[in-house]
Each structure stands twice: as C-alpha cells, then as structure tokens.
Amino acid sequence: MGYSRKFYVAVSFVLAMVFATPHTFAFTYDTGRILGLENSTDVVQVAVKKKMNPKFRRRNVRIETSQKPGTIIIDSNTKYLYYITGKNKAIRYGVGVGRDGFGWGGTVKIGRKAEWPSWTPPKTMIRREAAKGRKIPSYMKGGINNPLGARAMYLYRGGRDTIFRIHGTNQPWTIGHNMSSGCIRMVNKDVEHLYKRAKIGTKVIVIKDGASSAKYYKPKKGFFGA
Q1: Distance of alpha carbon 28 from alpha carbon 8, whole angstroms
Q2: Could you give phi then psi for residue 123, rounded to 5 degrees?
Q3: Mean per-residue pLDDT for 54-59?
Q4: What is the pTM of this model?
Q5: Which residue from 69, 97, 112, 142 lies 20 to 30 Å from 204 (Cα-Cα)?
Q6: 57 and 45 in contact (C-beta within 8 Å)?
Q7: Considering only CA atoms, which of 106, 71, 78, 107 is closest in space to residue 210?
C-alpha cells in the first residue's frame, strides 16, 4: 500500500470516529467548558459523582420484622427505606438522610401528602444559611427545581408537624449519603412510587444513624435479602 493510500485510510478512520460518536465529543467539550474543567478525565469524574450508586436502586427484598404491612422503616445507618408489603416482605429504596448534627430517630406518621409541593424553609434554616453567605428564598413554588422534588410526605408526631419530610430530589448523587437537614430524600421516580402506596396515617419508624435496627427488623441473607 502506497503512502497516499495509507494517508487516505488514516484520515477516513479519524473522520468516521468523530462523526460516529458526536455525543461523546460534544459531552466532553461542552461539559468541560461549562464547568471550567481542563481535560476529559475531570469530566468523567464529575459525571460519575452525579450518578446514584446502583446498590440503592429500588427492589423487592425479604426481611425479618414484626411490623405490619404498610409500615415504613428508615434505617439511617444503611441509607435504606423499607415499605413493608407483607409478612417479612418489603420494597427497599435508597435514601439520603440528615448530615452530622441533623440526624434523628423515632416513630412518626404521615400527616399530609403533596404532589410537586411548594417549599417554605424554616426561619432557622434561612438564618443558618445566611450566616454562611448563602441566601435562600423564603418561599419557592413547586416544580422541577424545587428542593422537595416531585412528591412530599409530611411527618407528624402527636398531631404536630415535625418539619421533617420524605421527599423527592433531582440530585440522585445525594442518595446513600448524610447530606440533608433532617429530611429523607429519594429520587423522584422512587418517591412517586412510594407516594402511591403510603397513606395518610402511615406509621414511619426512623432509626437514627448509630442506633441498632434489631428492634425493628433484621436483614435476611441471600439474593432476595435486605
């Protein structure tokens, strides 16, 4: 094969790769430009961080529990929420929970539910964030950019709002972490799934980070175990 022939083949190969994978090249360039990143390795690292760990995907599991069907158990240690569906059966969801200083535990109930809820942050949160130089709105209407996501289930104790919620988020990378101000976060598709099943008055058990879960449930071993 002559030199000109080799050159033609090489150029054709490069052009084919570029036009066959435009999304790859566009993603690397656009994302890097927007985020101020200098190379594709940085872009990949950022993209990975924005994905939820696969182990937190919704699935049906078997656990040992005396709790009745319809009960919700949230284990802040494992970052899993269990919705009991039958004798020793549950749907398991991945969640995000309160960060250091904002973790909590106890038994509460769902006192109210809302689709695409509005958000009125507590005054203490507004002051706390202001002290850090961050201004947050005193009210935000429901929508895709709202911190409460697609659905919210308001947690009550003794008939009074605890200010904590089980709610959606459009930040899937926060699932499996201690990042909230005490609320329980779920990806939007999961909170919509739970919302359809959990009724007003549903019992919710929250196990605080560091506390034992043995009183409420024990995971079963095996493929379908928790």
Answers
A1: 27
A2: -60, -35
A3: 97
A4: 0.76
A5: 142
A6: no
A7: 78
